[in-house]
Write a structure and sequence with these properties.
alpha+beta; Cell Division Protein Zipa, Chain: A; 2 domains; six-stranded antiparallel beta sheet; two-stranded antiparallel sheet; 6 helices; 10 strands
């Protein structure tokens, strides 16, 4: 091979090498900006995760979406409804409007308190209540129900506030005592209701080894019983003057 031919071969190889570097170099440059633009775009439109109700609505511009998110941060309002309002069931005008029950004319109260600073267990209380004809019902307290009347003749609550019993904790419950009370007017005559509550209270005091106390938490006496009964008799006379 002469020198002239060899030079032509070197020249062609050099041109091919330069062309290859030019082509591959441009391809890398083209790919890098494209990937960079995607990353910039992703960073520009990224939003923090939000609830479904806060997602950008179809057709909503980015500026409107940002304004709506600002309103949410300030007042928690979406489309004029606050988060709290959206959880409240709307009251229909068709529903009957019930007024609060009128206050009772009279309340008669007795207390049962465990003797010698002892405690009454939930198991003992439940057993004594059932033996005395009481049923567990509304407001998580016990009631004496007269036949099929909705209102109880009298009720028994926990001596400790708020007065209710935890129906899931009978095996671990320990209380100081109970409150016996009846409200008038009731489903029965006041004197009959009192006789029933007093008899039940005495029965419970016996079963629970508790002291029977009057409304001032003093030992309940025969004299106090007669005073209460006379007051109830006068109540019935005022309520039914013609009888």
């Amino acid at each position: 091979m002469d020198i002239s031919t060899f030079r032509w071969i070197l020249a062609i190889a050099g041109i091919a090498l330069i062309a290859g570097l030019f082509l591959f170099g441009n391809a890398d440059k083209k790919r890098k900006p494209r990937a960079s633009r995607k990353r910039v775009h992703a960073q520009r439109v990224r939003h923090e995760p939000v609830l479904d109700s806060e997602q950008r609505k179809e057709g909503e511009s980015e500026d409107d979406y940002g304004a709506r998110q600002t309103e949410l941060a300030i007042g928690g309002v979406v489309d004029g409804t606050s988060d709290v309002e959206s959880q409240i069931e709307p009251i229909s005008d068709d529903k009957p409007k019930t007024s609060s029950a009128p206050p009772p004319d009279k309340i008669v109260t007795l207390f049962l308190q465990a003797r010698d600073n002892q405690l009454i267990t939930g198991v003992d209380l439940l057993d004594a209540s059932l033996k005395s004809g009481l049923v567990f019902g509304s407001h998580d307290i016990f009631h004496r129900i007269h036949e099929e009347d909705l209102d109880p003749v009298f009720s028994m609550a926990n001596l400790t506030k708020p007065g209710s019993f935890d129906k899931a904790a009978w095996n671990t419950m320990e209380i100081k005592g109970v409150t016996m009370f009846m409200t008038l007017p009731g489903p029965k005559n006041a004197l009959d209701a009192w006789d029933s509550m007093l008899a039940t209270s005495r029965r419970l005091a016996e079963l629970l080894h508790a002291d029977l106390l009057d409304e001032s938490k003093s030992i309940f006496t025969r004299q106090r019983s007669m005073q209460i009964k006379e007051g109830l008799r006068e109540y019935e006379r005022r309520k039914n003057p013609e009888s």
